[in-house]
Every structure is written in structure tokens, then in C-alpha cells.
Amino acid sequence: MSTTAVTRLPTPRTRRSRTSGGAVNTLPLVAPSVVLLLIFSLVPLAATLWFSVLRYNLLNPAIHGFAGFANYRFLFADPALLHSLFVSVALVVEVLVITVGLGCILASLFETRFPGRSIARVLMISPFFVMPTVSALIWKNLLMHPVNGFIAWVTRSLGLGVVDFFTDWPLTSVVIIVAWQWLPFAFLILLTALQSLDEETREAANIDGAGPIRTFLFIEVPHMGRAASVVVLMETIFLLGIFAEIYVTTSGGPGIATTNLTFLIYERALLAYNVGGASAAGVIAIILANVLAAFLVRAIGKRLDI
Amino acid sequence: MSARNRTQPIAGTFAWLAALLMFFPIFWMFLASFKTEVEAIATPPELIFTPTLENYRDILQRADYLSFALNSVIVSFGSTVLAVLLAVPAAFGMAFYPTERTRGTLLWMLSTKMLPPVGVLVPIYLFARDVDLLDTRTSLVIIYTLMNLPIVVWMLFTFFKETPKAIIEASRIDGANVSQTIFSVLLPLVLPGIASTALLNIILAWNEAFWSLNLTAHNAAPLTAFIASFSAPEGLFWAKLSAASTMAIAPILVFGWISQRQLVRGLTFGAVK
In A, which residues are within 8 Å of B163 by CB distance? Predict the structure, then answer.
């Protein structure tokens, strides 16, 4: 997205380089990627901005013309928008807390030596490679179904009664599925970061009498801090766009209980054919993502040594 | 990089417990794929049953299953080949001949990744409709290529960056020409990096489920969309869903296991290695 962080024209300047033996013009190497990305990011963005100020409905060609900010006014007067923003943020925050929290603990556990560690790690990260529609349907049917599901059987056997997940706790159910998909991501990155902790630090803490819990809290957690911030930012970007999991499980319902901003725009655009309104909501989604992206680019840019 | 020296049985037990818990849904699905439909919905769950391949046979006999699978393969491999072809020269140029614009270019590429797909859904949908690209593999290949291009450039850049530059000079001194330098010296060194980048790209494209659900109907629908069709109430056949799902995720699960280490580099844009 060109609206964040970097405003200079990203065309690499040709220049004689002595370091690698001879003059190399890198423009033809870099230009194809840059030009295509520029088109791919700017043209649809400009179109979204343009549509958002138009009266434009695919079902009714009689509705047309310039709308000014009417689409935005209409949108902000719509309680569904506010609710969808709430759902988007709740989904992101809850999944982040679960994945980063558990991810830190699990990374610390997996840093110890135990039999079959690499097999356990492979099992641990597997959910990340399962396509979203599969994870959502497996959880919804095989595990969370109130009559035939595995979880219902477990809780019934324990005498705890049965939870009809998608009726009683719709958003929580979506959070559980998404957290299951993204915990491996947080875990893997935090584990990679933890592996760079040198053994002496740990030993020193040990000699000073720190037990495993204090070593975890005061040595390992601070060491994972930087990686955790990358996890938070990357997950936020992906989690704001959660769509398929909602599409196949709740379709945004019951009511609008699980309609996040992404799903709201999909409904407005492809189900209601309201191009103008959907585009205005799209602009809001872009702004939301870009505020977060600005932080991300800065955080990663700091670590970039060129 | 070493684990703590002593084995720690308590930590190990909890780690294994967590791993088994995380893997359980996949295992349970795998199990259900060999059950009959009646066994799959039985409560209490049937743990001992005669495995059947019926579900796999049924799914494979549906004439369209193979076309969904083929769409997935074509779209994910096609977009990967295109993205790598575009990204290798760019990453090579920026890693070996950096200019003062390189840093800005890379960060800008990263920032294009932050454009939420849904923000541009409307114009891309309408454009695809107007040029007759709705429900075509071409539209998915184009979108996936550009969607993943920043990640591919970044990941290749971090690999190329680690390749010693002096090796080019050395080969020049030894009398190698440009194509010899590239194909005999450089390529063997960076090939593992390119391979793991391609692997990550295939995983991301294979599992993508926003554009595939919104831009395809039947002709170009990949496996993500095929599985989504099981969410319709009349399509609730758990054993068949499980068999179709197992086939849809198996190849990517293996790719993921192979590339787990490089995955971290790719998905954090080189910030964590």
C-alpha cells in the first residue's frame, strides 16, 4: 500500500557499482516487480475511492451519479458498521492474547530437551497448513456439533451438559477455530527467537537460583519480546481479513453476531450489489489496516540492515 | 541453537500433551474419513471400526473432484512460477547491487501487503467481470502472483543477501563470463533458497480462501471452494467431508513440514530467522 510510510517513488537508481566487478544496471531487474505491484495496489485503490463517492448499485442501473459523502454518512449511521468494527477488533484481540500467550509458554516448553521433540513440533505446527475452509468445517461439525460432535460427547460424559457452540457462543467459537489455526504461527516464530538465547544466560540465571518459572518470566519472555511484536503485527494484518472461517460456519450470524468488517463488505458488495456502500466500507477497512501497517513497517524496518 | 542439556520430563510431558491436543482435530478428521457416514456421526464416537475406502472412492468418482484439485494445482504452481520469475531478478539486483533506493523499495513492497483484500474486492470483482475473467484460473493466478510477490521478493532478498558477494568477483577473476557466473556459481548457491521460497508460496496460494471464494463459481474453483460447498446443510456428510479434506490438505501438510524453518523467515519478512 503506497499510502503508508514510504512516499518516495520506488524506482531504483542505476549506478555504477564497484563491489561486484563491473557496472550493473539493476533497473530492468527490479522494474517489472515494482511496476506490477504499483498497478496492483494503486489502480484498485483509486477505483475503491472513486466508487465510494458514487451512487452505484448493480441491480438497479437507475441509481447512479455522484453521491458525495452520502455513502459514508449512511454507513456511519448504520449500527451494523459499528458492530462489525467491534467484531473485527474483538476477534483480533482475543486471538492475539490466546496465540501469543500460549505461544510463549509452548515455545519455552519446546526449548527443553525431551524424547520425540521434533515429531511433537511437527504435530504442533500442523494446523497452520490446513486450509481455512477445512479447519472451519472440521471444527464446526466433527468437534463442535451439539449432538454428534466430539466435544459434546466429552462434556456430556463428564456431566457438564452440552454447549451449542455456534448458537450460544458464536464469536467465541470462531475465535477458537482461528486461534487453533494461528497458534502454530506464533509458536514457531517465538520458538525460533528463543533458540537464539545463549546457554550462558540461562545457566547464569540457574546458578543465581532462578527456577524454571522465574527463568521463563525474566529471561525468556523478555528475549522473545521482539519476535512477539512481529507476531502481533503480522497476525493483526491477517486476522483483520478473516473471511472463510465465518463464511462456512456462521455466515456472519446469528443475526450479525459474527459479522466482521470483511464479511460486512462482502455482504454489501456481492450479496446486496451495493457497490457504493461496499466501497465506502472498503475505504474504512483500508484506513484501519494502514494505521496498523504503519507500525508494522516501522518495527520491521528498524531491523533491516541494508 | 542447542536445547537445554538436561532432559526435562515435566516440560516434555506438557509439550507432548499440547502437541497431541493441537493435532487431534486433524487426526480425528483422518479417522472419520475411513468411517461410514453412520459411524462418523455416532455418539459415543466409534473408536473401533472396520476402515473403509468408500468415501475416498465416492469423492474421486465425482467427476468434478479432479477438476477442483487440478485448479488448485494449476493456480498455486502457476502463481508460484510467475512470482519467482518476477522476484528472482528483483531480489538479485537489490541484494547484490544495492542503491540508496533499495531500502525504500523493499519497505514499500512490504507495505503493499497491508492493503486488505476486502478493500479492493469491489473494483477487482467488477474488473474481472468486465473482461470476462470471473471464474477463470487466469484471474486467480494473476491475483495470487501479485498478492505473494512482496513475500517472495523479501524472502529471496534475505537468502541472496547471505550469499558472499566475493564469489562473483572470484569467478570473474577465474575467467567465467556472465552466464557462467550466474548458472554455474550463483545458481547452485541460491537454489535451496529459491526452492523454500517457492514452497512457502505454494502453501499460501493453495490455502488462500478469500479470492477463491469470491471470484470463482465452479469452472475455476479450487479445493478451498470445493470444501466450502460442504457447509450447505444438504451437504453435511461428515465422512465424505473428512475424506475430501484429508486429500485437500495432505500434500500441503507435507510441504509445510519440509519448509517449517524457512517459513519463519518468509512470514516475518526476515525479521526473525
Answer: none
Alpha carbons B15 and A120: distance in angstroms, whole number: 7
Would the CB atoms of B16 and A120 count as touching at under 8 Å?
yes
Residue B63: φ, ψ to 5°: -55, -30
- Is residue A191 a part of any domain in this protein? yes
Which residue of chain A is at minimal alpha-carbon distance from B85?
A33
3-state helix, strand, coil in chain A (%, to 5): 70, 0, 30
Which residue in chain B has the smallest CA separation from A203? B4
CA distance A224 to A227: 5
How far is the alpha carbon of B233 from chain A, nearest alpha carbon, in Å? Answer: 11
Nearest by CB to A148, which of B43, B87, B89?
B43
Per-residue tens of pLDDT for chain A, all 306 residues: 444 433 332 333 334 444 444 456 778 888 888 889 999 888 988 888 888 888 777 777 777 778 777 788 888 888 888 899 899 989 999 999 999 999 999 998 998 888 888 899 999 999 999 999 999 999 988 888 888 888 888 888 888 888 888 888 899 999 999 999 999 999 998 998 888 888 888 888 888 887 788 888 888 888 887 788 888 888 888 898 899 999 988 888 788 888 988 898 888 887 778 888 888 888 988 888 888 777 766 766 666 554
- Between chains, do A114 and B124 touch, taking CB under 8 Å as contact? no
Could A248 and B18 be called an inter-chain contact, meaning their C-beta atoms sit closer than 8 Å? no
Minimal-distance CA residue of chain B relative to A17: B97
User: Residue A242, SS3?
Assistant: coil
- Residue A231 domain boundaries: 72-303
Contact B87 A142 (CB under 8 A): no
Number of domains in chain A: 1
Residue A210 lies in a domain: yes
Is residue B219 within 8 A of residue B136, CB to CB? The reply is: yes
CATH of the domain at A259: 1.10.3720.10
Q: What structural domains and CATH numbers belong to chain B?
A: 9-52 (no CATH), 55-267 (1.10.3720.10)
Residue A89 lies in a domain: yes
Q: Residue A27 falls within a domain, yes or no?
A: no
CB contact under 8 A, A129 and B86: no
Asked if residue A292 lies in contact with residue A237, where contact means CB atoms within 8 angstroms, the answer is yes
Q: Is ipTM strictly over 0.90?
A: no
d(CA A31, CA B92): 12
User: In terms of CA atoms, which chain B residue is nearest residue A45?
Assistant: B120
